[in-house]
Each structure stands twice: as structure tokens, then as C-alpha cells.
Specification:
Length: 122
């Protein structure tokens, strides 16, 4: 397969590793408390700073998400969505957070029974 703009086979770097071309090197933040990676180095730094100040992975994810809302406002922000699998080691507890669905606009607090909220595999 050939890229029509470069006349160079798309797999040329597999044939000749010395011909690899770096487009945009990504930055990864490493801390003694964890690792974080985002699409923008300033957001990665915000998450890494949170880890270095004693925060956990959830704190770092929130810090990075807020930073992404500043450095990439068209792609991230408070109106975004999230999915997380969280394991709290000290409590030996694992759960999932679905922040990708919307609650009905006019549902009064407490209208849904707990049994109705917990759907899925049991």
C-alpha cells in the first residue's frame, strides 16, 4: 500500500527501521506514585503533579481532565463523558463508574429506587 501524497509504502518503516519518521513525540508523566498520559503535555503535567503531591489515580485523572478543558477546550470540558474501572486497594473494592449517560432532565432526586439504578451483570 502506498500513501498517494508521499509515494512511500506505508509499511516502509517495518522494512527499514532506520527510516522511521517521528511525527509528534508524546510526553508521559511518571511519578513514584503512578503514571499518566494525555493528549496534551500540560494536562499530563497537571496529573503528574497531583500524583507527586500524594493524590491517587482518580485525583490525577480529574486534574488532567480540568487541564484538558483549558488547553483543548474544543475537545474536552465539564460536559464530557467518562468511563472508569476503579479499584480501591485499601478497601479491596472494585467498581465501575459510568459517566457517559445522561439522567432525565426533570427527574426529581430520589425518584429512582436503588434496585433500578443497579442494572447489569449480577
Amino acid at each position: 500500500m502506498v500513501n498517494p501524497h508521499s509515494r512511500r509504502p506505508l509499511d516502509a518503516d517495518l522494512l527499514d527501521p532506520s527510516d522511521r519518521r517521528v511525527v509528534y513525540p508524546q510526553k508521559v508523566g511518571v511519578s513514584s506514585n503512578g503514571i499518566i498520559s494525555t493528549q496534551h503535555y500540560l494536562a499530563t503535567q497537571a496529573g503528574n503533579d497531583m500524583l507527586n503531591q500524594g493524590g491517587n489515580a482518580i485525583d490525577a485523572a480529574i486534574a488532567a481532565a480540568f487541564a484538558l478543558g483549558v488547553v483543548e477546550p474544543a475537545a474536552s470540558g465539564l460536559g464530557g463523558q467518562t468511563m472508569m474501572v476503579i479499584h480501591l486497594a485499601e478497601q479491596d473494592r472494585t467498581f465501575c463508574l459510568d459517566g457517559g449517560t445522561r439522567a432525565p432532565n426533570r427527574t426529581p432526586p430520589g425518584a429512582l429506587e436503588r434496585a433500578e439504578q443497579l442494572r447489569g451483570y449480577r
